[in-house]
Amino acid sequence: MEEIQIQSDNYRSSSSSASSPASRVPSSNFFYLRKPGSIRQPISFEDSPDWDDTDIEVRVEEGGDSIHAATTPASPSLSKLNSGSLPSPPLPEGAVVARKIVGASVVWKDLTVTIKGKRKYSDRVLKSSNGYALPGTMTVIMGPAKSGKSTLLRALAGRLDDSDKIYGEVFVNGAKSRLPYGSYGFVERETTLIGSLTVREFLYYSALLQLPGFFCQKKGVVEDAILAMSLGDYANKLIGGHCYMNGLRSGERRRISIARELVMRPQVLFIDEPLYHLDSVSALLMMVTLKKLASTGCTLIFTIYQSSTEVFGLFDRICLLSNGNTLFFGETLACLQHFSNAGFPCPIMQSPTDHFLRAINTDFDRIIAMCKNWQDDNGDFSSVNMDTAVAIRTLEATYKSSADAATVETMILKLTEKEGPSLKSKGKASNATRIAVLTWRSLLIMSREWKYYWLRLILYMLLTLCIGTVFSGLGHSLSSVVTRVAATFVFVSFGSLLSIAGVPAQMKEIKVYACEESNRHSGAFVFLLGQLLSSIPFLFLISISSSLVFYFFVGMQDQFSLLMYFVLNFFMCLLVNEGLVLVVASIWQNIFWSILTLVSIHVVMMLSAGYFRIRSALPGPVWMYPVRTISGYQALQNVYDISVDTSSKWENLLVLFLMAVGYRFLVLVLLQLRVRKNIPVLRFLQCNQDISNTR
C-alpha cells in the first residue's frame, strides 16, 4: 500500500491541476445542434417485443441513478446530468419523436474467455467480467490493445471461435438464450464494401439477401437505414468512385457498413471499433449518428480505443478493461470520479480517454524507461513517471470495493430475476432468392468493373489479333495442318493464362462473401452458384468474340458445327480456369501468391497438354492431363495422338466440364472448412458447471 500511495502522490504532483467530474462538464450546447424542423426517426423497431410487466423497472438509490429497463418514456435529452452522461440541447419546436419501443437488455455475469495455446487453455483473455446494456443506451467497451475488448464483444454476440472456451452467463431480456437471426447486428472492424455499387444499390442488395418477402417491400427499409446513418447526400454515389472521381471517405464507408446491419432493424447492435481510421470530425459525426439511433430504442454495444472529449460525453456507460480485468463499469462521469478516488484525477486540459489509457496501458512503461534521466530542450519527463502496473492494481482494487461495483451487481440481479419476452427470428431470404440476387449483383458489378472485366476482353481481342495475323495465310497443304495445331495451342494456352487477370476481382468477391457469410447473409453454395451463373455470360462473350476472329484468321474449316464446337471448347477451358482461380484464391487469400501459383500451374499444364510431347509418351499418370483437342486429319494421329473417332472430342469436352465442376466443388469444401473453423459457439448450458469447477 505504501508503494501505491507513493505512486499516487507522484502522479498528483505531476498533474498541473485536477478537478472533480462535475467541474469538467461543458455547457449543454457544446456537442452538437440538431437542424430545425421535422425530425424523422428512421428505425421504428416495430418487430421488437414490448415488456408486458412494467415492474421490472429498476431504480438504483445508491448512485442516484434511475434506469428504466422496460417502458422508457421519450426524452429529448441524451441523458440526465446526474446519471453520469453529458446533456444535449432540447428538441426544437415541431420536432416529431418516434414512439419509444424497447429493444433488448443484455447482461453478462462472471464472463471468462480462455484462448487455447499450444498445449492447453492457458490464455485467459477475459476474466470474470460483469456488466449490462439497456435499450436506448450506448455501452462502450474501452481499453488498450489486447485488453479483451473485441473478445468481450464477440462473446456477447455469440461469435467466438469454436476453439475458444467461455465460462459465465449471458442473459438476453433476463433469460439465458442466444440472440436469434435478425434480432442483432454485428459490424466488424474492417468490412469489405463493393466499390462499383452506389450506396443505395449496396444496401438494397443487402436487404434482399437478408430479409424475406417481396422486393418492393424492402425499399422503405433501405431508405430508413440511409436516413438513420445520415447517408442521404451519398445515396446515389458510387462507393469506390469511377474514372477521375474519388470514392467515399472512410467515415461514410464506416457508416455504410453499419447501415447494412440496420436493414434488419435489430434490437441489439454490436460494433467493433466504430471510430476505426476516422478523423475527429468523422468520429464525432459517427457518434452523434449512433446516439440518434440509440434514442429510437436500439441497444448499442461497441468497442473503442480512445476518443475526444466531445465523443466521450455521448457515452452512457463505459466498461474499462486492461489485460482482461474489469477496472470499472458504470456511468461515464462516474468513471472520472473512480479515477479520482483511486488517486489518479484527470487533469483539466486532458481528454478523459487519453487519461484512462495513460494510466492502464502497460506500453507506457517502455516510454518511462526510455525517458528516465533524460531531458530535452523543454525540460524533463517527470510527468510520465507513473507506474501503470501499480495504477492497474489500484484501480481494480478500488473498483471491487466501491459502490459502483455493488450497483452493477444489484442491476444484474434485478435484470435477471425475471424473464422478459424472448426475441424471435425475423426469417431469412430463401436460397433461390439469394442466388438470383447474387447473380444479378455480380452481373452489375461486371458491367462496371472495367479494369477487371472489360479490360480482360480487350486483352483477349488483342491476343487473338496478334495470333491470327501471325498464323494467317497458311494455305491448305499438309504442313499447314501442323501449323494450325500450333496456332490453336498458342491461342488456347495463352488465352487460359490471361484468366489470371481476374485474380483481383475474384479475391474481392471472396472477401465480400466472407463478410456476408459471417453475418449469415449468404452461404458457400449460394455464393458459388451465383458466381458461376453470373460469369457464364461474360466468359461466353470472351469465347465467341475471340474464337470468331481466330477461327477465320487461321483458316479453319468453314462449317458452322465445327465453329460452334471450337467456341464451346474454348468456353469450357475458360470456365475451368475460372474455377482454378477460385480454388487458388480461396487457399492463399493473397493476390501475389495466387498469381505466382497460377502461373506455375499453367506452365505445367502447357508442358503436359500433349503439344510438346504426345499424351501416350508422357511418364505415368502424374503428367496425364486432359488435352484441349480439335478435330483433325488422319495424318495427325501419329504426330499429336489425336483420335479420328468423332466421339472423342465430346469425351474431352465432358472432361473439361467435369473439371470445371470439380474445381468449384473443391472451392465449396474450402469455404465450408473455413466457415466451420470460425463457427461461433456459446455454451450457455455449461457455463454454471464450468465456472463452479474452476472455483
Features:
single chain; 695 residues; alpha/beta; 3-stranded antiparallel beta sheet; 47% helix
Could you characterize what this model shows?
This protein is of the alpha/beta class. Helices cover 47% and strands 10% of the residues. It contains 22 helices and 11 strands. It has helices at residues 2-14, 149-157, 199-210, 219-228, 250-262, 280-294, 309-312, 332-341, 352-360, 364-371, 388-400, 403-416, 431-448, 450-470, 478-497, 503-518, 524-554, 560-588, 591-607, 637-640, 647-677, 687-694; strands at residues 58-60, 65-67, 106-116, 121-133, 138-142, 165-172, 184-187, 268-271, 299-304, 317-322, 325-331. Strands 7-8-9-5-10-11 form a 6-stranded mixed β-sheet, sandwiched between helices. It has a 3-stranded antiparallel β-sheet with strand order 4-3-6, sandwiched between helices. A hairpin with a 4-residue loop joins strand 3 (106-116) and strand 4. The longest helix has 31 residues, at 524-554. It is elongated, with a radius of gyration of 32 Å. The model is unreliable at 1-101, 377-384, 627-635 and 678-695 (pLDDT under 50).
Fold blueprint:
Layout: H1 2-14, E1 58-60, E2 65-67, E3 106-116, E4 121-133, E5 138-142, H2 149-157, E6 165-172, E7 184-187, H3 199-210, H4 219-228, H5 250-262, E8 268-271, H6 280-294, E9 299-304, H7 309-312, E10 317-322, E11 325-331, H8 332-341, H9 352-360, H10 364-371, H11 388-400, H12 403-416, H13 431-448, H14 450-470, H15 478-497, H16 503-518, H17 524-554, H18 560-588, H19 591-607, H20 637-640, H21 647-677, H22 687-694
Parallel strand pairs: 5-9, 5-10, 7-8, 8-9
Antiparallel strand pairs: 1-2, 3-4, 3-6, 10-11
Helix pairs in contact: 3-4, 3-13, 4-5, 13-17, 14-15, 14-17, 15-18, 16-18, 17-18, 18-19, 18-21
InterPro entries: AAA+_ATPase, ABC2_TM, ABC_transporter-like_ATP-bd, P-loop_NTPase, Plant_ABCG
Main location: membrane
Biased composition (Low complexity): 12-26, 75-86
